[in-house]
Design a protein that fits this description.
Radius of gyration: 22 Å
Number of helices: 9
Low-confidence stretches: 1-35, 37-43
Mean pLDDT: 81
CATH architecture: Alpha/alpha barrel
CATH class: Mainly Alpha
Largest sheet: 2 strands, antiparallel
Strand content: under 5%
Helix content: 55-70%
Length: 327
């Protein structure tokens, strides 16, 4: 995002976005341009950690399940392209292989991610200087991804083994992987997964949040669902393209099983480049960008819609709580 500096007085513009005006009068200062969107905060309501955590878990879980169900076939094609060696023909049958087992992992993983991301982001935005909101978003995204990886990695291992035809069902996959490779087999490629997903989560959410802040300040209103979806699509597609080589490495390490063709991340990179050429590190970039671009659109659209719904429910419930308290 380019330089952004905008003056804003909440008293003169009652329709300003809630992320920019948080529960009280405040100003965004005009003057020297700053690289990141900056937010000066005045008096705020007490931070409700448990409520923010709960809302994040619900919104994240809902968004993750919708995206995974809608785009699973594209993800399967991408995985098979990346796992294929040389000119092996890609099988287009069974594109929903492993979906049920994957949703069982995606639901808690997405819930954990957003559940950690939202309260962490809000805490860091209060701690960091106003012109470093992007750092708060980057850090919160990385921490959310780290927490979710404990569920994401076994889910991803099982999913990709099934997508490449190694197993017929998720329970069989888990049982046989543990029997042949031990419990650590469920975390095959964990290092490469973090190498891909931590930067991905941090960059994607930072781009998304910064674009939303800038757009809200310019429009002086809340964004609607189509606008959130477009910003989410752009953030997802751009981040997906940048991190494709990391995704290829992660896929190769996860699907190799007990063959141990690669001895780690660096050996994997060297072997791929030596045997297949540097272009092999961009295998599946087309479906990956399309998948994550569309997925970002759906994910952030559902996420913001669910968060707004929950926020409206809380506001509607507040008068009743106050009334009950006075009784």
């Amino acid at each position: 995002m380019g330089p952004l500096a905008v003056a804003f007085d909440s008293k003169r513009a009652p329709h300003a976005p809630s992320d920019v005006i948080k529960n009280g009068p405040q100003k965004l200062q005009l003057g020297v341009p700053k690289f990141f969107a900056s937010i000066n905060q005045g008096e705020e309501k007490p931070f409700d950690f448990l409520q923010t955590l709960f809302d994040g878990v619900i919104a994240g879980g809902a968004a993750g399940v919708v995206v995974e169900t809608a785009l699973y076939p594209i993800d399967t094609i991408k995985t098979r392209l990346q796992a294929a060696h040389g000119g092996v023909k890609i099988n287009l049958k069974g594109l929903y292989s492993g979906l049920a087992g994957n949703i069982a992992g995606v639901l808690p993983a997405s819930a954990i991610f957003v559940g950690v991301y939202e309260p962490t982001k809000q805490k860091l935005l209060k701690m960091f200087p106003e012109n470093l909101s992007a750092v708060a978003h980057l850090t919160a995204g990385a921490l959310g991804g780290l927490a979710a990886s404990l569920v994401r990695v076994p889910t991803e291992v099982v999913k990709q083994r099934m997508q490449t035809g190694q197993f017929r069902s998720a329970p069989d996959a888990v049982r046989l992987i543990v029997a042949k490779e031990g419990f650590k087999g469920l975390y095959a490629g964990y290092g490469s997964f973090l190498l891909r997903d931590l930067p991905f989560d941090a960059i994607q959410f930072c781009i998304y949040e910064q674009l939303r802040i800038g757009y809200k300040i310019a429009a002086r209103r809340e964004l609607n669902d189509p606008e959130n979806a477009v910003i989410g699509a752009f953030a997802g597609a751009l981040t997906g393209a940048i991190t494709t080589p990391l995704d290829v490495i992660k896929t190769r390490l996860m699907v190799q099983g007990s063959a141990n063709q690669y001895q780690g991340v660096f050996d994997c990179v060297q072997t791929i480049v030596r045997e297949e050429g540097p272009s092999a590190l961009l295998k599946g970039i087309g479906p990956r960008v399309m998948w994550i671009g569309i997925g970002g659109s759906i994910f952030f659209g559902v996420l913001e819609s669910t968060k707004r719904f929950l926020a409206e429910r809380h506001v509607a419930d507040t008068p009743h709580k106050k009334k009950d308290h006075t009784l």
